[in-house]
Amino acid sequence: MQTSSRTAPAVGGDSAVETAYLPVLALDIGGTKLAAGVVDGTGRVHSFLVEPSHAARGPEPVLERLLELGRRAVSESMLGWSQIGAVGIGCGGPLDAEQGVLVAPPHLPGWRDVPVTALVEEAYERPATLENDATAAAAGEHRWGAGAGTQNMVYLTISTGVGGGVIVDGRLYRGAGGNGGELGHVTVDWHGRLCRGCGRRGCLEAYVSGTSIAERAQEAGLSVATAEEVAAAARGGDPLAAAVWDETVEALACGLTSIVNLFEPELVVLGGGVTRSGEQLLGPVRARVRADAMQPAGHAADIVVSALGDKVGVVGAAAIVYDRD
Ligand SMILES: [Zn+2]
């Protein structure tokens, strides 16, 4: 089902070249929220809508609402369907990007082998492209965000889980089936905590995801529900929260040091809800990675926060359409 917008029927344009640069309808399927927006070839966001996923209700009602959200995003963009050339879809893996199938994403219970690309193409009569959401976000940050102009860049999203994407020599690294760049499952302690995402022990995700930070804090005796509360308590001088936060910094710096040693990126971009803590997280992590990574790679890589913020999922899903051309 993989179709590039270059080979699409020239909707609203007279030539294939024009079609390739038509605005894209971008869809982001998350475990907690669905997002849709219209993004043009310069990265400008013409509309942006978000609503809860209610993922537990199963694929059919969720997809129905996603398609409806996409229609509303087009009508609110003021551009009209005739100007939409293609659709980009971002979703957590595992997925088969070439076939356009969601294999069994753990954040979407009951979704198994859902041919999402075909369903979207049929509904909108436009070619659609599917990509892992973190890989797509990396493409978005590289094309239009914090990583614009870099040749080698790593993107890490730290939210409910931890995902990643890698740009090597100016191009998105996707792996054999589009599932490469799972940076959240870099091991930071091989006897360590159980990882919900993959079932192994000691993954980066098992320490620094929002869920894991809150869990470790609760185990330490703090009555908190979120990573944000842990960060606030640590800022407020609570010694237990400060210890949990220090461990978070240590684990993230440990994982990022391995990642920096592997790829020698010019830039590491961090996104996702946990990075709203800003320099409370980035400051000490940056210092440790610079000290611990093999030189000169460690000195070369800066660590910054995502420029696209909450829109990174939608902008990334649009970026992959332009990237595939
Ligand atoms: Zn894992």
Description:
This protein has 325 residues and is α/β, with parallel strands linked by helices. Helix content is 38%, strand content 19%. A five-stranded mixed beta sheet has the order 3-2-1-4-7, with helices on both faces. It has a five-stranded mixed beta sheet with strand order 10-9-8-11-12, with helices on both faces. Strands 5-6 form a two-stranded antiparallel sheet. β1 and β2 form a beta hairpin. α4 crosses α11 and α6 packs across α7. The longest helix is centred in the last third of the chain and has 25 residues. The radius of gyration is 20 Å and the shape is globular. The relative contact order is 0.15. Zinc ion binds next to loops.
What is the structure about, briefly put?
The chain is of the alpha/beta class.
**Low-confidence parts, pLDDT < 50 over ≥5 residues?**
1-18
Q: What does the main sheet amount to? A: 5 strands, mixed
- Measure the end-to-end span: 15 Å
Basic shape? globular
Order of helices and strands: HEEEHEEEHEHEEEHHHHEHHEH
Averaging pLDDT over every residue, what do you get? 91
Number of helices: 11
Q: What structural class do you assign from the helix and strand content? A: alpha/beta
What small molecules does this complex bind?
zinc ion
Count of strand segments: 12
Our Rg estimate from Cα atoms comes to 20 Å
Helical residue percent band: 25-40%
Strand content: 15-25%
